[in-house]
Amino acid sequence: MTGKKILGDERRKWILDKLMTELAPITGGELAKQTNVSRQVIVSDITLLKAKGEPIIATSQGYLYMPASNQDMMVERTVACQHTPDRSEEELFLLVDHGVTVKDVKIEHGVYGDLTASIMVSNRKEVEQFMHKIEETGASFLSELTDGVHLHTLMAQTEQTLDKAEKALEDAGFLIQSFN
After folding, report:
1. What is the pTM of this model?
2. What is the CATH number that goes with domain 75-179?
């Protein structure tokens, strides 16, 4: 889709169709380029689609369509971890190397309450992209606001996969507690 600007509902339908057919995340910049609008227009479109109940997830790699049926096949577990920022990549590599998807990170902030950010990394390449984006933007890790204490929602195909990943977190000194 190049050349002419796609307007309103037609553009949102095109975005939804594109996200539903792609397996990999698509950046807002790429969607903007393909529809000849600004990235901010795409951000607004995604917000409207989410408000209509579309299961779109914003990840550090881009937008991803995640229908409930895909999520239903996965088991989830929340773990509490603590470490310094310089060990973030090590923690994420450890988890994805055990076949786990790190869905998000959560902290409890003294003023804002619970803060959650989507991560959605499932392999080393995605972890590297996430870490590069943190470096490139100069962003801080949420856990820096809480002396390294944070929660992760982990997803895997089986409970046994989560058990092994949790044990690896414990052995590496990351795990504070698990919430099955």
Report:
1. 0.71
2. 3.30.1340.20
